[in-house]
Write a structure and sequence with these properties.
The protein has helices at 3-14, 20-35, 39-44, 52-66, 71-75, 96-108, 125-133, 146-158, 200-205, 208-211, 220-232, 248-257; strands at 77-80, 83-86, 115-119, 138-143, 163-167, 180-185, 190-191, 212-213, 233-242, 261-267, 273-279. It has 282 residues and is an alpha/beta fold. The protein folds into 2 domains: 3-67; 91-279, Rossmann fold, CATH 3.40.50. The longest helix is centred in the first third of the chain and has 16 residues, at 20-35. Bound molecules: S-adenosylmethionine (SAM). S-adenosylmethionine binds next to helix 7, strand 4 and helix 10. One of its GO terms (biological process) is methylation. Residues 112-196 form the Methyltransferase small domain.
Length: 282
Amino acid sequence: MTIEKLKIYFAHNLEGLYPSEEIESFFFLLVEKHLNFSKVDTVLKKQYEVSERITQQFTEALNRLQHFEPIQYVLGKTEFYGLPFKVTPATLIPRPETEELVDWIIVNCNKNHRALLDIGTGSGCIAIALAKNLPAVKVSAMDISEEALKVASENAIYNKVTVNFSKKDILGTSTLPQKYDVIISNPPYVRNSEKEMMQKNVLDFEPASALFVEDDNPLLFYSKIAKLAKNYLNPNGFLFFEINEYLSKEVIQLLERESFSEIELKQDFFGKDRMIKCTLGE
Ligand SMILES: C[S@@+](CC[C@H](N)C(=O)[O-])C[C@H]1O[C@@H](n2cnc3c(N)ncnc32)[C@H](O)[C@@H]1O
């Protein structure tokens, strides 16, 4: 089959399930993955004969897209902060608002900040983007999921940075291996009751353990990490959190109770309360 015919077959099978521009964008991404053709190549080489094996791979991708599996999982990769990341169903797909958090951290880091810790690293996106952009800093990262840590380690190699990954259940510990200058976390923060507002492809495919918390204790990660940070943050160090847009007031109150100061709330690109920075002072 030619690329031209494959494109018609692909679009026909996804018609009505996605907007046509999205279907076209999926097609170009899959051609790039399986044939290593750029968008321009794809348009210019429309009479190129696609092998049986590649056609089969497109049929498999179609089947997954018809079930609304996120394109990032179908491709097995995504981009975060301009860097390539492998993603699997064991890892959350990194979100653009988390790129904004990384930006904020980079702006706030100075030469005195030498040791960083990312708690709940998932694909390793925050830790790796920071290691890449702050080469003088020693970056460590933790997650409860062994499978996620495996992907994160591959991503560190892929991006040519060193990150010290370790497996830890942050809720079940009262110690950290050392003190840090910056502690960051984008922990699970979506309340179970918010599930009905979420898209089906997130609910059906992304790891629930990375997203959801019980409605009666939605800040358990924030509370635990703030308590740990009180003992493991160096003087003048920073604690950064990504937060649930509906719970900013509650997170601020929690941090005040734990004696954090200079608490700063920041909105994301969509104007939603999305991240917090604070310190313990000197
Ligand atoms: C919202 S995801 C964030 C992933 C990644 N940092 C990002 O920004 O895309 C939360 C992460 O916390 C991890 N996690 C959940 N419970 C945990 C626990 N008790 N201890 C450590 N990590 C945990 C999940 O496996 C998941 O990777």
